[in-house]
Amino acid sequence: MSINQTSDLVQRSLKSVWHPCTQMQHHESTPLIAVSKGEGAWLYGFKGERYLDAISSWWVNLFGHANPRINAAVKSQLDRVEHAMLAGFTHKGVVELSERLSGLTGNVLGHVFYASDGASAVEIALKMSFHFWKNTGRPLKQEFICLKGGYHGETIGALSVTDVPIFKSAYSELIKGTHVVPSPDFRVQGDSTVETADREQTSLQAAQKAALAVEELLKERAEHISALILEPLVQCAGGMAMHHPYYLTRIRELCETYSVHLIADEIAVGCARTGTFFAFEQATPAIWPDFMCLSKGISGGYLPLSLVMTRDSIYKAFYDEKITKAFLHSHSYTGNPLACSAALATLDIFRDDQVLSANKILSSKISKGLMSLQNDKRVKHFRNQGMIWAFDAVVEDPAKRDTFSRRFFAKALEHELLVRPIGNTVYLMPPYILSDDEVGLLTQRLHVVFDEVMGFD
Ligand SMILES: *Cc1c(COP(=O)(O)O)cnc(C)c1O
User: Fold this and answer.
1) The pLDDT value given to residue 6
2) Do residues 294 and 270 touch, judged by C-beta distance below 8 A?
3) Cα 213 to ligand 1 centroid, rounded to whole Å
4) Confidence at residue 51, expressed as pLDDT on a 0 to 100 scale
5) Domain range annotation of the chain
């Protein structure tokens, strides 16, 4: 396509497509990029310009764009069957995927229910939890607990357990009330601008304090509470708030004591993003939630696929002669074979390339490249968990803070990077396939972009 045709495509998009998570008017000053192809960590425009996808296209793309192995799996599935309904029918892909995912939990979470998007997986977990209590004679348990700054998607039900005002406030009248407990985010303890050696200690204290608040609430209200939902280790969309794994251990104990389900939303942190395949694996001793939601990376970033895993004991409470006891949630594309084939190919890559251990090396290389930011006076709370890095830019002027994210995004594009801060929190969530050269390019240019944006007048 010529330059004129490309800008024509952008103009047509602005005329006909309502883009997500965007004030469309901002596109009068913020660029809209037309993508012609993707390859590895890169997205390409039509004129040969390229962008290193340092946020995995909203955290979904794990092994690069147009990955040959995932491509082959989807193509081969396409020639067999593209889709068949999953009520009354089954197919090999969905069976294998369920077995392999359950296997990754030591078969503790032995049943898998499928949907397409993350928000729906959250809705399903909420409905299952509520319905479980009804089926087992405890219909008073109708309320949910979520964490301050937590994000679980944006359908009406998922918004009810989301605590990110920019997504929620406009719809408050439509949304059922939820108990919001303090975040275990380590940054709530003190506000130091310098990196302290006792991050571990600060973080543990924050987790203990936050868990106490949950205990108080459960003491009082557990009879009415169905489930607590959280994002294990990193509250992502709320601004990459990280917490100590102690929190998971303690919340699991409390949920057990007070007969409240624990829903782990691993939609963003699952699939090795935090260093283990499931973030929850970092809780000690080895424990599992009652429900685990997975989406985003599970299909390698190829196709919309989400799922909820749960325990056999929960599944059994629905197993009955009566239809009303069943979990009747019906979604047209449940267990879509193409999406399952992409997910199975993704799991194959994890296994064949020993991705978990390879990522440890990759993660330390990226951390090294970002080291100077840790002591930068313009940076607060530099943090890292597995394949997630984040820091808060110190932007005093409120007007500049408001536009920080957009300015950073535009400036990064000029330097061939796709980075899209959340407010003044800059983060990286790159795909797991960066070469040494790409790590160098990413970390060096991130510094340059940061310098330019911070020097903005
Ligand atoms: C992205 C996300 C969701 C919602 O997933 P969608 O596919 O965008 O609906 C839910 N929970 C978490 C933790 C997420 O990061």
Assistant:
1) 80
2) yes
3) 25
4) 98
5) 3-66+357-456, 71-352
Q: How far is the CA of 111 from the centre of ligand 1 (A)?
A: 21
The set of protein residues with a Cβ atom below 6 angstroms from ligand 1 is 117-119, 122, 151-153, 231, 236-237, 265, 267-268, 295-296
User: For position 190, what pLDDT does the model report?
Assistant: 56
pLDDT at 195: 47
Q: Ligand 1, atom 11: nearest CA belongs to which residue?
A: 152
pLDDT in the model for residue 220: 98
Q: Can you list the pairs that 440-445 forms with residues at least 24 positions away whose Cβ atoms lie under 8 Å? A: 440/369, 441/52, 441/416, 442/52, 442/54, 442/366, 442/369, 442/417, 443/366, 443/369, 443/370, 444/369, 445/412, 445/415, 445/416, 445/417
- Which CATH code of 3.40.440.10, 3.90.1150.10, 3.40.190.10, 3.20.20.70 fits the domain covering 3-66+357-456? 3.90.1150.10
Quick one: pLDDT at residue 196? 58
Give the distance from CA 282 to its chain's centroid: 17
Q: Tell me the Ramachandran region of residue 293: left when phi exceeds 0, alpha when psi lies from -120 to 50, beta otherwise.
A: beta
What separation in Å is there between the alpha carbon of 21 and the centre of ligand 1? 13
What pLDDT, in 10s, does the model give residues 134-171? 999 999 999 999 999 999 999 999 999 999 999 999 99
CA distances from 109 to 104, 293, 315, 412 (A): 9, 11, 10, 41
Q: Among 296, 299, 420, which is best to mutate for testing ligand 1, by the most ligand atoms less than 8 A from CB? A: 296
- Tell me, yes or no, if the two domains 3-66+357-456 and 71-352 fold the same way: no
Candidates 394, 374, 363; CA nearest to 197 is: 374
Angle between helices 355-369 and 337-352 (to 10 degrees): 80
Residue 10 token pair: 């952008």
Q: Which atom of ligand 1 is nearest to the CA of 231?
A: 13
Fold (topology level) of 71-352: Aspartate Aminotransferase; domain 2 (3.40.640)
119 C-alpha vs ligand 1 centroid, how far in Å? 6
- 237 CA → ligand 1 middle, Å: 8
Q: Which residues share a beta bridge with 379?
A: 393
User: Which protein residue's CA is at the shortest distance from atom 10 of ligand 1?
Assistant: 152
Residues of the chain with pLDDT under 50: 191-195, 457
Q: Tokens for 404?
A: 């920080």
Ligand 1 centre to CA of 306 (Å) is 9
